[in-house]
Amino acid sequence: MAIKKVAPRRGIYPDHDPQGEPLPGNRELVYFAKPRKKKLSEYEKLILYAQPNPEWVPGGLDWGDYPSKFTGGRDTWGNYFTELKCQDWFAFRDPHRRWQYPYVSEKADEWRSLQRRLSSYAEMKAWTSIDDWWRDEILTKVWGGFLHHEYGVFNAMSSVCRDVLSDIIRAATCTGAFDLLDNSQMIQMQRLYLSKLLPDQFKADVDSTRELWEKGDIYAPAIKLVDELWDETSDHGEILFVIYMVHEALYGRYVREIFMENHAGLFGDSLTGLFLPDMKRADQVARDWSFDLFHNILGNDPEFGPMNRKIMQAWLDRWLPKTLACVQAFGAVFEMPEIKKAREAVGLEKQEDRFASLLEDWKKKFLDPIELQVDLQKAKQLAA
Predict the structure, then answer these.
(1) Neighbours of 54 (CB within 10 A)
(2) Which residues contact 290 (CB under 8 A, 6 or more apart)?
(3) Coil, strand, or helix at residue 255?
(4) Which of 76, 230, 284, 314 has the most other CB atoms within 10 Å of its CB?
């Protein structure tokens, strides 16, 4: 689905406030929420205002405060949970209209399709073409270590899914978080599958992967960033911005696409390619709903848009160097003699050039629409 800018229809009534009008003179249906298009979709009917919300959350319908509070008197939800402001938190829409039923249905279909592909893979005995070095060093350790990254970012989303200020944003963030969990599960499933095909040669235990994740140099900045997001960052808007607008959009794609997708085939590994499309699908869905949230709703809010863009610029300046440090550390994998030899044999473009193209595309799609500034030349230097 193409990313596009839209003008959200804010507020709870479509054209006017009917309060005070006599009932005999008002025979038209009145929505509790403005539809994104002409009519309310099934997605909007089932998601919007499905959970109670206080009227002091912009766009909320209920009256008063929540009856429960945390120990010490902190509100269950509060506008101060994030620096970002919005005239109507309920104006957001997920372009893919995902809620519980279609999400579960889509995931079940993905797993059924994957099961059929794996059955054919086993029938062809395609695993016999995987290079031993790639299997033992990359699939066992490096790719296995990345599953801890995806699982860690998923856990950093736990507070976000609880703290966001509308149920419709909560649906998108929860499904987005489960996509990150699904990424880690797919990596481990791939490793378990190989261990069944090669019980004497491939071990799918997570001990070696955890050691690389916790103590290895290539993941040192990544685990530091995940820990900081998970343990030290309380603003749910900041966590969302960092994960989807910066970190996964750059580092996640760098590992999954520039490294795994481009190099697996060079070592006879066609198995990884069976899992990557589902990860790419999750990445595209997150990109689209993040665009609606940060560009259409927050960045272009009629009242708070300029301030929101300043806040997002501050977050970008703070977190982009941390993500680029992750990219730089992982670059050591590209310098392994076996990787360099395979890349040079087929004339594969250098990872620095591929990442430079990724940076330019990221700036065009993620930053330019809300006028966020970044020094691409400096970013390329920090990642090299």
Answers:
(1) 18
(2) 240, 244, 245
(3) helix
(4) 230
Quote the CA–CA distance of 334 and 266 in Å, as a whole number: 13
Residue among 341, 312, 258 nearest 86 (CA): 312
- Token output for 146: 């990345």
- pLDDT 10s digits, 23-39: 566 666 666 778 888 88
Amino acid at site 54: P
Q: What distance in Å separates the CA atoms of residue 161 and residue 167, rounded to the nearest whole number?
A: 10
Alpha-carbon distance of 302 to 213, in angstroms, equals 44
Burial 114-140 (b: 16+ CB within 10 A, else e): beeebeebeeeebbeebbeebbebbbb
Closest CA to 222 of 237, 212, 236: 212
Task: Identify the architecture of domain 126-383 in CATH.
Answer: Orthogonal Bundle (1.10)
What band does 58 get if pLDDT is binned at 50, 70 and 90?
Answer: confident
How far is residue 372's CA from residue 208's CA, in Å, rounded to a whole number? 40
Compute the distance between CA of residue 228 and CA of residue 315 in angstroms, rounded to an integer. 13
Q: State how far the Cα of 88 lies from the Cα of 101, in Å rounded to an integer.
A: 26
The pLDDT tens digits of the residues spanning 292-321 come to: 999 999 999 999 999 999 999 999 999 999
Bridge partners (DSSP) listed for residue 75: 69
pLDDT tens-digit map of 215-226: 999 999 999 999
pLDDT exceeds 50 at position 59 = yes
Domain spans in the chain, listed from the N-terminal domain onward: 126-383
d(CA 188, CA 206): 9
Alpha-carbon distance of 209 to 250, in angstroms, equals: 22
Which position has the token pair 């979709």?
Answer: 41
228: exposed, middle or buried (Cβ count in 10 Å: 0-12, 13-18, 19+): middle
pLDDT at 11: 60
